[in-house]
Amino acid sequence: MYSDLVEIAPRELKFIFEPKKQSSCTIRLINKSQNHVAFKVKTTSPKKYCVRPNTGIIKPRTSCDFTVTMQAQKAPPPDMACKDKFLVQCTVVAEETVEEDITSAMFSKDDGKYVQENKMRVILVSPPSSPVLSPINVVHSDLPSYKDSPREDQVNGYENISSQLEGDVNGVHDHNGRYEESLTRDQVNPLDQNTPKELDENVKELRKENANMQMEGKYAQLETRKHDEEVELVEDVASMKSKISELERKLSEAKDTISRLTEEKKFTAQERESLQRELVMLTSKKGGRKVRVGFPLLYVVTVAFISMVFGYLLHY
Question: How many CB atoms lie within 10 A of CB 70?
Answer without folding.
Answer: 22
